TrEMBL record:
It comes from Parapedobacter pyrenivorans. One of its GO terms (molecular function) is 4-hydroxyproline epimerase activity. Belongs to the proline racemase family. It holds the Pfam family Pro_racemase. Coiled coil: none annotated. This is Hydroxyproline-2-epimerase. It comes from the Bacteria.
């Protein structure tokens, strides 16, 4: 049997977004998280086929659009990535909104605004347009918070590293420059990737991270290395590891949210500040603190509602076939 998927490809500040506009499965569930669980149980072959080689690559990331569960909202989004189905993806959201609006896949209830259901929760969107072109997308993300401080983990080659863990839609280990780590600019992407894989495993072997409001969001999935900025007007720079072999080419929306929550908890950032975040290739997101709220642990510590603004460009239309006769129908990784 052959299955055909009508995809529109884009990139958000350099990182790929493949939106499945036709061919995605019908999903059951009373929330995007429930629909995500249904997809993972029955249709994960679609993610693997569209994200991994030979149809995708190590950094491939995408989404499938659904009608919203709550009719007050505009759409539901399922994120598909080489890493699995993330609860939330910032660069994926910016790309998905840009494609959906430019290509007429959605009709917003209110001009320039959208209410998006994601597995991690409701995400509000404001976008700007020049003619048909979407020139920027700002998302107001889910509540983000610092989850752990100063945990230490042994890293091959580097030795003991100290790091914080923060949540911004996914759980991130954030590794700042310190005696055993000089900053991301001193190492190759290949080195950061191989250390990240081992660190993520070691962290998950020794620590448990579960979202206090949804146990389906659990485990540390990303490692965020930080370093010096390329542009003196930027606030900070990162290199975010995801999947098994990827470094985000964008500054990573959920990673930027996590890092702003970390800075906020440490008194380095306050409501009203602009947080200009650079990626490994120098592309930028503008972060803001939209609100200060109690975190969901009930421990009296604060959390933030982050705003993340960026841009995306559509790169092409892509009709992709997954043929059961193909030995690589469900992709491969080397
Ligand atoms: O932008 O949130 C993000 C993201 C997650 C993984 C890759 N990008």
């Amino acid at each position: 049997m052959k299955k055909t998927f009508f995809c529109i490809d884009a990139h958000t500040c350099g990182n790929p977004v493949r939106l499945v506009a036709g061919g995605g499965p019908l999903l059951q569930g009373q929330s995007m998280m429930e629909r995500r669980l249904h997809f993972l149980a029955e249709y994960d072959w679609i993610r693997k086929g569209l994200m991994f080689e030979p149809r995708g690559h190590d950094m491939m990331s995408g989404s499938i659009l659904y009608s919203p569960v709550d009719p007050a909202n505009d759409m539901g989004v399922l994120y598909i990535e080489t890493s699995g189905c993330l609860p939330m993806c910032g660069h994926g959201t910016i790309g998905t909104v840009t494609i959906a609006v430019e290509e007429g896949l959605i009709v917003p209830k209110q001009a320039g605004k959208l209410r998006l259901e994601t597995p991690a929760g409701l995400v509000l969107i404001e976008y700007a347009q020049e003619g048909k072109k979407v020139t920027s997308v700002k998302l107001t993300n889910v509540k983000s918070f610092l989850a752990a401080e100063d945990i230490t983990v042994e890293c091959p080659d580097l030795g003991t590293l100290s790091m914080d863990v923060a949540y911004g839609g996914n759980f991130y280990a954030i590794i700042d420059p310190q005696p055993n780590f000089k900053g991301l600019e001193h190492y190759s992407a290949g080195q950061l990737i191989s250390w990240s894989r081992i660190l993520r495993q070691r962290i998950n072997d020794h620590y448990t991270f579960v979202h206090p409001e949804d146990k389906n969001i659990n485990g540390l999935s990303h490692v965020q290395w930080t370093g010096s900025v390329l542009d003196s007007l930027s606030t900070a720079r990162n290199a975010v590891f995801y999947g098994d072999k990827a470094i985000d080419r964008s500054p990573c929306g959920t990673g930027t949210s996590a890092r702003m929550a970390q800075w906020y908890a440490k008194g380095k950032l306050k409501k009203g500040d602009r947080f200009v975040h650079e990626s490994i290739i120098g592309s930028k997101f503008i972060g803001t603190i939209e609100d200060e709220v109690p975190n969901a642990f009930g421990d009296g510590k604060p959390a933030i509602v982050p705003g993340i603004e960026g841009w995306a460009m559509v790169t092409g239309y892509n009709t992709i076939i997954i043929d059961d006769d193909d030995p690589y129908a469900h992709g491969f990784q080397v």
